[in-house]
Amino acid sequence: MKKALVLGASGGMGYALVRELIQRDFSVTVFALSKEKLNKLFSRYSEVTIVHGDAFNQKLLAQISENQDIIFHAINLPYGDWQDKLLPLTENILQATKKNNAKLAIVDNIYAYGKHMEAIKETAIKHPHTKKGKLRLQVEKLIMKSNVPYVLAHFPDFFGPYAENTQLNFTLQSVAANKRAWFIGSHHIEREHLFTFDGAKALVNLSLQDKSYGEHWNIPATRPIEGVELIKLIRDLTGYEKNVGTVTTNMLRLLGIFNQQMREFIEMQYLNQHPVILIGEKYEERIGALPRTPYKKALELTLNAYQNGTA
After folding, report:
1. What confidence tens digit (pLDDT) does each residue in 15-29 have?
2. Residues 245, 181 contacting (CB under 8 angstroms)
3. Is the C or the N end of the chain the one with fewer CB within 10 Å?
4. What is the pLDDT of residue 260?
5. Measured between alpha carbons, how far is residue 34 from residues 43, 75, 89, 115 in Å?
6. Strand 3-7, strand 215-218: pairing
7. Tens of pLDDT along 157-180?
8. Measuring CA to CA, how many Å separate 168 from each of 50, 160, 161, 182, 234?
9. φ, ψ for residue 200 (rounded to 5)?
10. DSSP symbols for 64-109
11. Please, is 146 exposed, middle or buried when counting C-beta atoms within 10 Å of its C-beta (0-12, 13-18, 19+)?
12. Quick one: pLDDT at residue 309?
């Protein structure tokens, strides 16, 4: 039986990765800060070993990486911690992976690409213009120089069960509670929202192919979609009748006076005005068909998780 370690297993993509790995008959070690969250999510699975702790504890990280075939890095630090902690975290994970002769599969975003007015392939030149994009590019270069066998997947913004800090989940949480809901950015611009279960399936597929390693991969969402269509699908699924407001950049600035996460979020609002759309043809040519759950089904699964108290 193959063994995998999922770092950041209590988050949306981490949870989806664990589910996917269990379905592939992996023995999975899950790791995150919160023991309570890990127990809630995974205590019913006999295939799962739960370990909680701090990924900045090098000794602990090295211990839990022993005898693992693949390490999945799905840790998502708060924006405010990126400047001081993102590169040291990456160093810790690379050291643990190298020490234990494991492979590394990395969940990454699209920030390093910077602004692009057309849909982009992996060959697009990366000219990040934000401090977060520049940090992500530094992380990429660190990984590339590490001599660790890695696959790095660029994902658009997620949604799905337990994807708490994502834009679409921000809307879905309020809908599920029948509260006034808000949608971040214009309702009339097409953007990509990736269902976590699709992203997990794609990354696991990549991790099992030796030919995938040493490369970056774009994993697009099912399709670009406008907010108005998403909101209609949500209403059709739930009967939700309240108005859905728009969170503007100026509103974020106001909220940012009191909330550091909101202040940090403002920098990335260009993605809601000029979205980066990914082309995944390299994956489809070399790995196979991309997982593409229809938005209605993916929204239904996510909303059900909220309404059943399992998200």
Report:
1. 999 999 999 999 999
2. yes
3. N
4. 58
5. 13, 13, 17, 35
6. unpaired
7. 999 999 988 999 999 999 999 999
8. 29, 9, 11, 9, 11
9. -65, -45
10. HTTT-SEEEE-----GGGHHHHHHHHHHHHHHHHHHTT-EEEEEE-
11. middle
12. 65
Instruction: Tokens 């370990």: give the residue.
Output: 51
The pair of three-digit structure tokens given for residue 113, joined into one six-digit string: 């690409």
| Token pair recorded at residue 10 | 């209590």
Q: What is the pLDDT of residue 266?
A: 82
Residue type, 238: T
